[in-house]
Amino acid sequence: METKETQLKTLLEQTAKEISGTLGISIVEVASGMALSSYSLKSDFDLNVAAAYNAEVVKQKLKAMQALNLKNEAITDMIITLTTQVHFIRFVGTKYIIYFAADSTSSNMGMIKTVLNANAPKIQAIIDSL
């Protein structure tokens, strides 16, 4: 029988392969910046470093929302576009994010959002059972 960790890794791999241009995908604990699980299609793309720094981006946005007194708002997702990459961050529950990076020349933002939204509940279910 597969462990929950193996199920999560398999789901990340399947998710990554559904989207053209994928560089990598991680499930990241926001508080620590640690990747719970990752899958990379590019050997020189360090998902652990990306996870840590993007968790900081999320924490700073949460602080900004607090400073602006946006009590009834929650981050659904964040999109960061670079010259040749797109980075997509989506909350899974309140403690974790899906961090996804892709080549912007060969990926489609609509497809990224659709696939991540479809797989987020499955990811959440596995995380909840850990």
Characterize the structure shown:
The chain is α+β, with helices and mostly antiparallel strands and 130 residues long. It contains 3 helices and 5 strands, in the order αββαβββα. It has helices at residues 4-18, 47-67, 109-128; strands at 22-29, 35-40, 77-81, 85-92, 96-103. β1 and β2 form a beta hairpin. The longest helix has 21 residues, at 47-67.
Strand fraction equals 25-35%
| Count of alpha/pi helices | 3
- The CATH topology comes to Beta-Lactamase
How far apart the termini lie comes to: 15 Å
Quaternary class? single chain
**CATH level-1 class:** Alpha Beta
**Category from helices, strands and their pairing:** alpha+beta
Shape estimate: globular
Largest sheet: 5 strands, antiparallel
Which CATH architecture would you pick?
A: 2-Layer Sandwich
Question: Mind sketching the topology for me?
Answer:
Elements: H1 4-18, E1 22-29, E2 35-40, H2 47-67, E3 77-81, E4 85-92, E5 96-103, H3 109-128
Antiparallel strand pairs: 1-2, 1-5, 3-4, 4-5
Helix pairs in contact: 1-3
Short description:
43% of the residues lie in helices and 27% in strands. With 130 residues, it is an alpha+beta fold.
What key phrases describe this protein's structure?
130 residues; alpha+beta; five-stranded antiparallel beta sheet; Beta-Lactamase; 3 helices
